[in-house]
Amino acid sequence: MIADDLSGAAECAAEFTPAGACACLRLVPGPGLGDAATVVWDLDARDTAPVLPAEVIASIATTRRVYVKIDSLLRGNWATLVAAVVRATGRPALICPALPRLGRGLRDARIQLASGHSLAHYTGSAIEGLRQVGLQAGHYRLNASDPSGHGLQAALERQPVTVVDAQTDAELDVMASVLESLPAPYLAIGSAGLAGALARQLEIPRGGCSLGAASRMAVLVGSRTGPAREQLSQLALSSGEPVRWWQPQRDGADAFSDNAEDALLRLYATRADESSPLQGRELASRFAKSVLAQWPAADVYVATGGETARALCDALELTQLDILGQIEPGVCLARLPLPGGTKYLVIKSGSFGDPATLVRIARQGGALQALSIEKQA
Questions:
Q1: Taking a C-beta distance cutoff of 8 angstroms, is the pair 37, 1 a contact?
Q2: pLDDT in tens, 65-76
Q3: Structural domain count of the chain
Q4: Residue 287: predicted pLDDT
Q5: Is residue 212 domain-resident?
């Protein structure tokens, strides 16, 4: 699997992780993939030009199934990434970024959102987006007259790349079945929706993945989306803990806005400042380093936003993560192999979840219960 950001890489990796096993999520090129059945490469290329290292190309050549994770709203340099992988493999490719459980579909090769949703960032045709990077693509729409997808299989044989419409998980299941019926190795391109359909087709045994009790938990909210900020607000209200707001200083002397006492549960967030010259990965990097400078270190880190999670991993000098699964849909648990002992990271997209998502994570990790006992004592 190849992904353009860490939260998406982790979510799709979890779909293919059998109960009791783990997926290998590589953050940088290099040897040491181990014997994991699923290997995921995070290219960290949402806002940069994606480059396929030699190790990635070599790993593609040894597997029948290659999955390219792109954003369900077609954010970032998704078309450039797709073109690079298609040209490197020469395999028939199916593209469908639909994510029905979040009300995100594809119709006439364009993003279609459920009524009341207004998160679309890319409003053009996926086919036109591919054409702009020099890749010709066909288009196919599943219909009632072709329930088993025989027409889709023929379409995949005619074009090197086929964009397929979908609004439901049932349609994604048909695509997964067609892909698995192809005689040759294939390339599947989509969000966690198509990844989940392929996992169902492969009948990967799924099991619960529990966070377990943690003595110290640090929650990092670098994402500035509405859902992420509402989740932070709800967690602060439920725990009674203050949010430690961080804002970069022009002289590099970054600091938090208060000197709150140490606690078992610590909440960190970036304060919006449109005038700041720092944005994107540089902002996330300095935020993560500032959090890690706090004492003592946490046993579990919760990162909201793929850029924040990646910056945290880079600050910890990690080269790979072990993806253990999902503690709830869209919320992934990773084991961090660190020299000082194993830590854990919960990864969640900034735009995902309901207002109580962070509260449930903190409760499952025992942070809210431990905090309550500490305050009573």
A1: no
A2: 999 999 999 988
A3: 2
A4: 92
A5: no
Based on the fold, state whether residues 196 and 221 are members of the same structural domain.
no
Max mean pLDDT among 38-47, 78-87, 323-332 falls in 78-87
| Partners of 347 in the β-ladder | 303, 332
Last residue of a domain, one of 146, 170, 201: 201
- Tell me whether residue 207 is in a domain: no
Percent of the chain with pLDDT over 70: 89
pLDDT tens per residue across span 243-272: 999 887 766 667 777 666 778 899 999 986
Same domain, 56 and 175: yes
Domain boundary among the residues 201, 231, 255 is at 201
- Report whether 244 contacts 257 (CB < 8 A): yes
Q: How does residue 45 score in pLDDT terms, banded at 50, 70 and 90? A: confident
Please give the pLDDT value at position 95: 97
pTM over 0.85: yes
Same domain for 87 and 235 = no
Q: Answer yes or no: do 127 and 22 share one domain.
A: yes
Q: Closest Cα to residue 362, out of 227, 224, 263?
A: 263
Q: Are residues 101 and 234 in the same domain?
A: no
Domain harbouring 46, CATH code: 3.40.50.10840
* Residues 70, 159 within the same domain: yes
By residue range, what is the domain housing residue 251?
A: 217-376
Are 284 and 308 in contact, with CB atoms under 8 Å apart? yes
Tell me the percentage of the chain whose pLDDT exceeds 90: 48
Question: What pLDDT score does 276 carry?
Answer: 60
| CATH number of the structural domain spanning residue 327 | 3.40.980.20
